[in-house]
Amino acid sequence: MLELSSIAEFSRCHCIGICAFLVPTNLGLAIATLLFTALNRSPRTIYKTIGLGILPAIVLLLHVFTWWSIGVVMLPTFILPMLASTCLAIYAYALLKPAHMRNLLLTISKISIAKYQQLLAN
Fold first, then answer.
1. Are 56 and 22 in contact (CB under 8 A)?
2. Domain with 97 in it
3. Angle formed at CA 58 by CA 55 and CA 63, multiple of 5 degrees
4. pLDDT of residue 25
5. Which top-level group of life is the source organism from (predicted)?
6. 76-96 vs 98-121: helix axis angle to the nearest 10?
7. Which residue of 41, 60, 63, 97 shows the fewest CB atoms closer than 10 Å?
8. Tally of domains within the chain
């Protein structure tokens, strides 16, 4: 049986590798969820990306908690939980209010395109 302390020690010893995998994974799956929602893909596809995305976000939170448990308080130990929490919020929003999220993303994209065209015209 694995002890919790040995898992935490493994997490701290391999921090760079764990973060090098989890950060891009969280970003990629959150962006995929946003894109699939904005493009009005099937709910099944959106649910798959949400399901895949929740696990790395929770693992990232647990990884940072191992650092906090030994008293390490640094900038990355605040940025990484914020990233994971933002990803979890995106997943919750896409799961609970996909139509509202889609309208919000479309509105943001229309405003961005209009501002870009205005910049080009000047």
1. yes
2. 4-121
3. 120
4. 97
5. Bacteria
6. 110
7. 97
8. 1
